[in-house]
Design brief:
This protein is α/β, with parallel strands linked by helices and 213 residues long. Helices cover 56% and strands 12% of the residues. The chain has 2 domains: 81 residues, Methyltransferase, Methionine Synthase (B12-binding Domains), Chain A, domain 1; 127 residues, Rossmann fold (3-Layer(aba) Sandwich), CATH 3.40.50.280. The chain is globular. Bound molecules: cobalamin. Cobalamin binds next to α3, α4, α5, β3 and β4.
């Protein structure tokens, strides 16, 4: 099958929330020698953007979006070994999490997978992570980078709280803090004293690499 068609099929599996077919569709893409990065961007993310537009326009509702997110997670899990170059070695440690009360998971997962692919070891704290948990993780893990994700405009204020609380600790003083997510802007990132803002996962990787260099 032609590359474009396979990618469309992968995107359709995400849009339809087809948690069974999506794995086969990704496998077919890999067999057809489509680069894992292309499958991620032009298949999975394209599907997620489409469902996002449908959600915005009230064409689909929360259950459909949850199914799409489920399919995306399964696909990402399947694709991960092909994105990750295990021979790159350890480039540094990243602790990542989503701010309190924000349940949006996918952007953070994509960033994590891509960072692992670039040779970073990633400690993923999950979603709706309390401020104190970020602080404890920074003290315990002593990472090179703290990455914080925020999707909802209403939870942006917690990103500020996380940065402030982490900066107060010894481990957090010189720590590189990288922020991103749909509601974050470069200006906001600067206003809360984050070190960098990444608009997408590719930039997240480039910024993380620059931070540990
Ligand atoms: C999927 C989804 C959900 C799912 C989440 C499932 C899951 N497991 O993640 C569910 C159904 C649970 C959900 C719920 C809600 N959602 Co919602 N959701 C979406 C949707 C459709 C897609 C988001 C997504 O996953 N995109 C794909 C990922 C890969 O993209 P991304 O998150 O942008 O991440 C990329 C970058 O931002 C960046 N990035 C992300 N994190 C980080 C971190 C760092 C450090 C860096 C550098 C970069 C980075 O890199 C990523 C990859 O390139 C969007 C619509 C849209 N168009 O985005 C709405 C959207 C985000 N949701 C919205 C809303 C309002 C809600 C609800 C309040 C709805 C409701 N009325 O109940 C609830 C809130 C629940 C909560 N407390 O969090 C609004 C947010 C508006 C706003 N600005 O605040 C949106 C924009 C829809 C809309 N147009 O109204 N949602």
């Amino acid at each position: 099958m032609e590359e474009k068609l396979i990618l469309q099929q992968i995107a359709s599996c995400i849009i339809d929330g087809d948690t069974i077919k999506v794995k086969d569709a990704v496998t077919e893409g890999l067999r057809a020698m489509i680069p894992a990065q292309t499958i991620l961007e032009e298949g999975l993310m394209a599907g997620m953007s489409a469902i996002g537009r449908q959600f915005r326009d009230n064409e689909v509702y929360v259950p459909e979006v949850i199914m799409a997110a489920q399919a995306m997670k399964i696909a990402l899990h399947h694709l991960k070994p092909f994105l990750a170059d295990r021979y790159l070695g350890n480039k540094g440690k990243v602790v990542i999490g989503t701010v309190p009360f924000d349940l949006h998971d996918l952007g953070k997962i994509v960033v994590s997978v891509m960072l692992e692919g670039a040779g970073f070891s990633v400690v993923d704290l999950g979603v709706d992570v309390p401020v104190q948990r970020f602080v404890e993780a920074v003290i315990k893990e002593q990472p090179d980078i703290l990455a914080i994700s925020c999707t909802l405009t209403t939870t942006l204020t917690y990103m500020k709280e996380v940065v402030e609380a982490v900066r107060k600790t010894e481990a957090g003083k010189g720590l590189n803090i990288l922020v991103g997510g749909l509601s974050v802007t470069p200006r906001f990132a600067q206003s809360i004293n984050a070190d960098a803002y990444g608009v997408d996962a590719n930039l997240a990787v480039m910024l993380a690499q620059a931070m540990v260099r």
